Amino acid sequence: MQTVVIQGPSTLKGQINISGSKNASLPIMISTLLSKGNCFINNIPNLRDTRFLASILKDLGCRVDFQKNTFVVKSSAIKKKSADYEYVRQMRASIVILGPAISRYKKFKIALPGGCSIGTRGIDLHLDALTKMGIKILIKNGYVIAERKKDKLNSINHKFPKISVGATQNILMAATLADGISKLKNCAIEPEVIDLINFLNTCGANIKVKNRTITIKGAEELNLEDYKVISDRIEAGSYILATMATKGRLRLNNFNPDDLTFPLKIYQDMGLKIKKISKSSYEFYCKKLKPIKKISTKEFPGYPTDLQAQLIATQLKSAIKSRVIENIFENRFIHIPELRRFGANLSIIGKTVTIHKTLNLFGAEVMATDIRASFSLIIAAMMSKGTTVINRIYHLDRGYEDFDLKLKKCGVNIFRKK
Ligand code: EPZ
User: Fold this and answer.
1) End-of-domain residue from the set 201, 228, 255
2) 195 and 262, same domain (yes or no)
3) What is the structure's pLDDT at 113?
4) What pTM does this model have?
5) Are residues 211 and 67 both part of a single domain?
6) Based on the domain organization, do 195 and 235 belong to the same domain?
7) From the candidates 39, 62, 116, 410, which is the catalytic residue?
8) 371 alpha carbon to ligand 1 midpoint, in Å?
9) Which of 371, 372, 29 is closest to 195 using CA atoms?
10) Do residues 332 and 238 share a domain?
11) Burial readout 224-243 (b: 16 or more C-beta within 10 A, e: otherwise)
12) CA-CA-CA-CA torsion for 241, 247, 249, 254, nearest 10 degrees?
């Protein structure tokens, strides 16, 4: 099992090119199932998850290819109408295959994704809306078996009882070929959802967004067009927090600050300084880190749950009873016991972590547990004296393209070990 070794303390100094967004790439790659034709999707990060999704689509019969950071679609026709458990259990996001697949083919089967370390990750919001679109859903032997009789899905007026990124993406994709106009309310409006909508409209869909309402006018068919995916705001936020934690100076290229408006305001309250170099290049530095009393994770445009673990790590030496409240996932504190191994002083009550200042942190052997938690361990390792070994770094490889090379280029003593 691969590990990564970091000699701390270290300061982040230099520049990093932000990769394409993993969470925009996955639904956009999947949405190619909706249309005929071929296309190049550019700026796709070369990650374990994007490569894995390409293999799922190949297993379904699509003729797709990955060339460095370009996903090449030669044909998105599927022959095998089933996404198997061996695939789906390794990447929950594949449940978003169901919407496009069942709107193009009359029958499709997909394994129930199951939970993961951060929560139960239900799919009730997806299935309830698909049922309203005229799909018969049967759950049997750990699979969702979806079937429709009519030539087209029904368009629907639907209000999601809870905001869900995946359910919004699944249903809006299903609605692009439905019969008539669908109106979806209480939708997720993360930049990754908007990027999917922009790609679908480029391919001939008719989708409009107003606040949390998405209106989709069903099209006869879509035709694939080339597209460039947005850059990864969570990767960028992770490196910005690492810069703050180590009082470094970092220039980020291919970065769009509009995707991180609220977090950047919080970080500036904590002492971050930002200098604009060009439209997509910004320099970040922080001389003195100030404590922040309380942060709650919320759906976009609020503070992202995907930057919660990294924010906790950044505050380990500067907090004064700082509280971080996790409102999106029910079990997204698995990094806390690992951070304690560095000597961090953290307490958990319900959904709230309280951070008490710890002046000295020391390197330790720790375990990566999910993509974002793993990056919080990197930040803690850079703040600590001595050697840190991070096990199960496939979690990092799922979400951070070339993270070790990018950090090494910025002065961090980091290397992979088999
Ligand atoms: C997406 O997951 C992201 N993944 C997650 O990023 C991100 O943390 C999450 O959105 C929230 O922003 C991808 O885009 C691939 P949700 P998703 O549906 O769509 C509950 C990362 O590290 N829920 O918005 O699965 C769910 O359990 C990953 O890149 C239901 O109860 O998230 C959660 O508590 C981690 N029933 C909440 O809603 C449902 O049918 C939000 O989940 C669907 C969701």
Assistant:
1) 228
2) no
3) 84
4) 0.97
5) yes
6) no
7) 116
8) 13
9) 29
10) yes
11) bbebebbbbbbbbbbbbbbb
12) 0
Looking at the structure of the chain, the number of domains it has is: 2
* Same-domain status, 191 and 303: no
CB of 372 within 6 A of ligand 1: the answer is yes
Residue that is last in its domain, among 207, 228, 249: 228
- 186 CA to centre of ligand 1 in angstroms: 15
For 297-344, how does the pLDDT look when each residue is reduced to its tens digit (9 = 90+)?
Answer: 999 999 999 999 999 999 999 999 999 999 999 889 999 999 999 999
Q: Which residue, by CA, sits nearest to atom 18 of ligand 1?
A: 164
Q: Answer for the pair 168, 212: CB distance below 8 angstroms, yes or no.
A: no
- Three-state SS at 201: helix
Nearest CA to ligand 1 atom 27: 121
Beta carbon of 58 within 6 Å of any ligand 1 atom: no
Give the atom of ligand 1 at the shortest distance from the alpha carbon of 120. 27
Query: Which atom of ligand 1 is closest in space to residue 49's alpha carbon?
Result: 15
Among all chains, which residue has been given the structure tokens 């994007």? 50
Q: Looking at residue 265, which CATH number applies to its domain?
A: 3.65.10.10
Residues 319, 221 share a domain:
no
Ligand 1 touching residue 193 (CB < 6 A): no
- Active site annotation includes 116: yes
Range of the domain at 372: 3-18+231-417
The pLDDT tens digits for 80-124 are: 999 999 888 888 889 999 999 999 999 999 999 866 677 777 899
Which atom of ligand 1 has the smallest separation from the CA of 372? Answer: 22
Residue ID of nearest Cα to ligand 1 atom 37: 328
Nearest Cα to Cα of residue 354 among 331, 324, 334, 326:
324
